[in-house]
Amino acid sequence: MIRFFLKRVLQSIPTLFIVSLVAFGMIRLLPGDPVLILLGERGGSPEVVRELRSTLGLDQPLAVQYVKFLKEAVSGRFGQSIVSHRPVSEEFWSRFPATVELGALALLFAIGVGIPLGIFSAVKRGSLWDRLMMGVSLFGYSMPIFWWGLLLILIFSVHLGWTPVSGRISPMYDVNPWSGFLLVDVWVRGLGWEGFVNALKYLILPAFVLGTVPMAAIARMTRSSLLEVLKEDYVRTAKAKGLAPLKVVVHHALKNALIPIVTVVGLMFGTVLTGAVLTETIFSWPGVGKWLVTSVIARDYPVIQGGVLLISFFVIAVNIIVDVAYVYLNPKLKGGS
Amino acid sequence: MKGLWILGLFLLLAVLAPWLTSYRPEQVFSGMSLLPPFFSAQGSWAHWLGTDDLGRDLWTRLIFGARVSIGFGFLIVFVSVAVGSFLGLMAGYFGGFVDRSVVRFVDVVMSLPSLLLAMVVVAILGPGLMNAVWAVSIVSLPGYIRIVRAAVMNEKSKDYVQATRSFGASHGHLIFKSIAPNCLAPLIVQATLGFSDAVLNMAALGFLGLGAQPPTPEWGVMLGDSRAYMESAWWLVTWPGLSLLVVVLTFNLVGDGLRDHLDPKLRGL
Amino acid sequence: MKALSWLIVFGGVCGFFSMPEAKAAPKILVYCSEASPSTFNPQLGSDGPTFTAASSTIYNRLIEFKYGTTDLIPALAQSWKVSKDGKTYTFQLRKDVSFHSTDFFKPTRKMNADDVIFSFERMRDKNNPFHNVSGGAYEYFKSIGLDALIAGVEKKSDHTVVFQLTHPHAPFLTDLATNFAVVLSKEYADQLLKNKTLEKMDTDPVGTGPFKLVRYVKDATIRFSANKDYFRGAPKLDGIVFAITPDPSVRFQKLKTGECQLIAEPAPTDIKAMEKLPQLQVLHEPGLNIGYLAMNVEKAPLNKPEVRRALALAMNRKEYLHLIYLDTAELAKNPIPPTLWSYDAGIKDIPYDVKAAKELLKKAGYEKGLNLELWTLPVSRPYNPNGKKMGELMQADLAKVGVNLKLVTYDWPTYLDKGRRGEGQLMQMGWISDTGDPDNFFGNLLTCKAKEGGSNYAQWCNKDFDREVSAAEKTLNKSQRISHYKKAQAIFARELPWVPLAHASVYRAISKKLKGYKINPIGVEEFYPLDLAQ
């Protein structure tokens, strides 16, 4: 098992390397000079521009810049944001918990609703319930996330006033970040239930919006893989032995059905990250997604390079974990994938 | 196959757009901006779905927008299927270095959230409809490459292929005449699903202001512009989003149906 | 016994559920800002959010603007003298100003000349240990030319500072009142040097201002607490919270629900709705800005003044005021707004005259028509809220005189870049002043030096104009300056490198609970004079 894990890790290193090259190279192809953006309408004399460029290290030959970038990246440093002059890693890690908290809650919702939905549909196959549930999941699967978010904001925040429109917690609460996860920090900083409920109110709508598509995908996957398994001989044998259908499902079928489900959940990680970019933009959620969008617009090279590299690192890491889990659940596949 | 009927209806709307309305999508009716739909108090039948902030007829922009979203969705799928299948065929058939490079390429593209990658590509090429098409096509490649590659590798080992080879058939003949036709089924299924992804990605880019440029009517752009009017003009938010949802939904329905038809084994994947 | 234990349980449960009063009874203003600040040291940034968050909250300058006006008042400097040749400025500093006392820094002395000198040396002297901290890019300082202008900053005594300039520069005092020219604490700097934590200068700021920075949660909130020892007296507010809300309609939402009492940059489309709400008050004032269409005089046929004038005559600019600015702006004829001193109201306005436009084009040889490219502003700015819409209107107007416009746009950074290089023909642009001195408009946008620097988008370089503007810059005599600027405006009106479009009014929406608020012509918010009704 460990050998398999190590093999996968080693395989991923060249991929990461190429990603870093692509991140570095592509960003440099972006038109628009970050120095000029900083100066805005005011412009600047050619010497001012030249000096600013050299201060930011943008006048070195590309190869030199790339090597410097790599060397620092390996030690977890990604340079300084052109906009804020703070280390990119600091900017990334300070926003990362917000995105993770949102994504985690979204995935929790997706799994917590999607799997039971899929199970019930599989067990009650062909019934009205099944068709209704599958209709709902088809909807969720096809929903343009940015429209869904706008619609829900319109209904729940603007018209009904049940949920706040943006932010993570009421500005009246001063929460000194401890872990960065507000749902945890409110307890650490003594704001108790009131703070927790308040933070939850801000989280509910974005998490629901973000989790809709993964929920639908997981429901569909659960249903179909469960159906596959239920057809298998050994299940029919169990049924013949007289075990109750639900028990059959849970004890025998589910474990084997879990494999493709785990794969889908792993795939959903990428979907959640993509969705987070849009969700964070709509809800003004102070996470990594929104930060990257703003940085692309501002041509903040170090941020885009570092952000792209860090994100792909996480995606690759999750893929490796999923692969390992896959192999654990199905030892027959250890040989290849 | 209810999906096919709805899809057909939308395609018809898109194709017949110029005849279904007496206005042009860029036409500005000064003084008529932000008119609500016909069933509202200030609405009128002249602009039955309402008008936008510049006073352009919403119905017109919606059906012309259908041409953009659906038409370019097809284009993206066509391009990415063509390129993806080619790469997958080469990788699966020739193996070795070609295979490893293609797999590496797929890994790199897949290690980034698709929207982010598309955004950066569009930022390089400049905002615009065609550039958004290239960006989304690149991002859509991995799915097709993988499917075709897997199918080719599967077929390659089969008896009939060995037999044909022993008769001295060239690579080209083998690839295109023997193996490829057998990979079609999963490809078609993936393509229908890919269509919805393509439409959604393009609309997302439009929403962020990176896709189609004014005055081109595109549903994502229309949604992005509607954000400022969420409270005052709900119809600006509703119609384009609803159109997107229905188009994507019907394509997914058709895709599901196709899958059931072509290969029951793949059902629910 | 049982009753007692139940009582204990009951008490425990109550205790568990009785939350500490987390909602603040003290007066905390919630301000919905439009973007995150790029830094907390205004020396390093030039964006509005940075200035609003730091310049007059955490810091002070030597001279400042009287609230709501562009008049200069003493601040950290209580008086000053200028030498006859205009090259030596002597400032007497106040003796009663203290820096913030915080958890991480306790000042042992009051503000003195060392602090002022350090603040400017940090920007000027490449060898100053703090020069390269946080990027070392002092954009504002450099772009208004102060690095070349200031020959030296000297300490005459503990409370006297002398600035030596390389040449007389009338706007110098206004420049020192601008947001970036804040005074940092040398004592704090020395402490950071000793602990080798120099970046804290800009992330954990220490200033003399009415508010102290408590906490910044990135992209989310900024908290300030009142500085009770502020030299002008403790502020009436106990604290401020900036809620960073990039979407203007969301800001409006929050203002409506009372979550914010003051918002940044309300969208023009929301103004009418805001005016209808009883709990809100909408204020407006003419702004210190100009929206214009730059005509690249280096590209034929725009090098011919008749062609330029024809284009101006053909545009129905009053319609733009109505459709684009939604009647929140004034028609422009000069590069500076009417509220700025030296504005020449006598300059004749450009009428809307299609016939005259056609005549001029015929005279210039373009009777058959003309093809031009118009760049439309890709972002919404106060001086032009909707570039693409305006472009479409201009297109329709110019078609009537046979001029065919192709509308083009680029994303903002590319737009600025290409414009600076002079690649465009017709380019929508604008300018928001942040000093309130006419030189900030004339010198920055229309001189030959500005053309070199890239902020003269019409690429216009006229010797007569330059002479007047330069003379106005160098003399300290205000009436002389006025006459020079009036001559400059006449030259501008004759040559018309721009089609002047509009001076947008600045709109602000506030909760009626907010007291003491005035619109700041410079655009940056000040919080010291504000109070909240409970």
Largest sheet of chain A: none
Helical fraction of chain A: over 70%
Question: Largest sheet of chain B at a glance?
Answer: none
Computed CA radius of gyration of chain B, to the nearest angstrom: 22 Å
**What does the oligomeric state look like here?**
heterotrimer
Of all chain pairs, the largest interface belongs to: A-C, 60 and 62 residues
Radius of gyration of chain A: 24 Å
Find the count of extended strands of chain B (DSSP E, 2+ residues). 0
Q: Note the run of SSEs of chain A as H and E.
A: HHHHHHHHHHHHH
**Low-confidence regions of chain A:** 333-337
Number of helices of chain B: 9
Helix content of chain B: over 70%
Query: What would the principal axes of the Cα set say about the shape of chain A?
Result: globular
Shape of chain B: elongated
State the low-pLDDT regions of chain B, or none.
Answer: none
* Structural class category of chain B: mainly alpha
Summarize the structure.
Chain B is mainly α. Chain B has nine helices and no strands. The radius of gyration of chain B is 22 Å and the shape is elongated.
Describe this structure in words.
The complex is a heterotrimer of chains A (337), B (269) and C (534). Chain A is an all-alpha fold and 337 residues long. Chain A has helices spanning 2-29, 34-39, 46-55, 62-74, 88-123, 128-142, 145-159, 182-188, 192-231, 233-240, 245-283, 288-297, 301-329. In chain A, helix 5 (88-123) packs antiparallel against helix 11 (245-283) and helix 11 (245-283) runs parallel beside helix 12. Chain B is mainly α and 269 residues long. In chain B, 72% of the residues lie in helices and 0% in strands. Chain B contains nine helices and no strands. Chain B has helices at 2-20, 58-94, 96-110, 114-125, 129-156, 159-166, 171-207, 219-226, 234-262. In chain B, helix 1 packs across helix 9 (234-262), helix 5 (129-156) runs antiparallel to helix 7 and helix 7 (171-207) runs antiparallel to helix 9. Chain C has 534 residues and is α+β, with helices and mostly antiparallel strands. Chain C has helices spanning 2-17, 48-54, 113-124, 139-143, 146-149, 172-177, 186-195, 200-203, 248-257, 271-276, 305-314, 317-323, 354-363, 387-399, 412-420, 439-445, 448-453, 463-474, 478-495, and strands spanning 28-33, 63-65, 72-74, 77-82, 88-93, 150-157, 160-165, 211-217, 221-226, 239-244, 262-263, 280-286, 289-295, 329-331, 370-375, 403-408, 426-432, 498-511, 514-515, 531-532. In chain C, strands 12, 13, 14, 15, 16, 17 and 18 form a seven-stranded mixed β-sheet that branches. In chain C, strands 8-9-10-1-11 form a five-stranded mixed β-sheet, covered by helices on one side. In chain C, strands 4-5-7-6 form a four-stranded antiparallel β-sheet. In chain C, a hairpin with a 6-residue loop joins strand 2 (63-65) and strand 3. In chain C, helix 11 packs antiparallel against helix 13 (354-363) and helix 18 (463-474) packs antiparallel against helix 19. In chain C, 52% of the residues are buried. Chains in contact: A-B, A-C, B-C. At the B-C interface, loops of B face helix 9 and helix 14 of C.
